[in-house]
Amino acid sequence: MTDVTFADLAQIIKGRAARSDRYIVAIAGAPASGKSTLAADLARRFGHSAAVLPMDGFHPLVRWGCFTAKGAPETFDAGGS
After folding, report:
1. Tell me: the pLDDT tens digits for 16-54?
2. CA 30, CA 51: separation in Å to the nearest integer?
C-alpha cells in the first residue's frame, strides 16, 4: 500500500477489525521512524477498544555500549536481561 493517509489507515483497520472479536495490528519500521507515535495516534482514534503494547526500551543500548548501532540485530535484548 502506498500513499495511505492516517484516516485511510484507521478506516482500513476499523473495517477489518469489525469482522473479528479481536484484531491485532503490528507496526514495523526503522528505528525512530514514528512507529510509537502512529500506534498512540491510532489508539486515541479507537479509544477504549484499543491498547498499545510498546517495545520501546527493550534494548538498553547505553549500558551495552552500542547506542550508535541502534536498530542493529545485536542491540536487541532477546533474552530480556
Report:
1. 999 999 999 999 887 778 999 999 999 999 999 999 988
2. 22
- Are the beta carbons of 29 and 35 closer than 8 angstroms? yes
CA–centroid distance for 22 within its chain: 17
Are the CB atoms for 23 and 17 separated by under 8 Å?
yes
Count CA atoms within 13 Å of residue 21 on its CB side: 0
Alpha carbons 34 and 23: distance in angstroms, whole number? 21
**3: its cell numbers:** 500513499
Amino acid at 24: I
